[in-house]
Design a protein that fits this description.
By secondary structure, the chain is mainly α. It is built from five helices and no strands.
Length: 135
């Protein structure tokens, strides 16, 4: 048998001297995150159900803005993500994911917006003319 031993084997279960660089939250931190999450859920519900804004586009922007804030609250208070955790790799993975989501959404919206222009030329006019002839 080798005289070389693993350093982790020598430590008991009660040895909590390690530091993984991530922040460990307390009950107060979890409750703060919970209260913020409830508020950030109730406000969009009230905005939509109460018809607070006359314009639906304004309502959509407010709801999307509050959703983005809620994502940040969840990442900070529940997932314990910050720029220092995991040596910055978590933040790099998040940025990469955001870039992919933006590319996918932008491409999808672009295709759907231009779908009308890319249809066969005679189809739209024939359909409109046949709709007039219907009783």
């Amino acid at each position: 048998m080798s005289t070389h031993t693993d350093a982790h084997v020598q430590h008991g279960h009660d040895d909590h001297g390690h530091d993984d660089g991530a922040s460990h939250s307390t009950f107060k931190g979890y409750m703060t995150g919970f209260v913020l999450a409830v508020i950030l859920t109730a406000i969009p519900f009230w905005v939509v159900m109460g018809h607070v804004f006359a314009s639906t586009s304004t309502t959509a922007f407010v709801v999307l803005g509050l959703a983005a804030v809620q994502i940040v609250v969840h990442m900070i208070y529940f997932l314990h993500m910050n720029a220092r955790s995991e040596g910055g790799w978590n933040m790099l993975a998040l940025i990469f994911t955001l870039v992919l989501v933006v590319i996918t959404l932008t491409g999808s919206i672009w295709v759907m917006y231009h779908l009308n222009d890319n249809m066969m030329p005679g189809m739209m006019h024939d359909d409109a003319a046949s709709m007039k002839d219907m009783p």
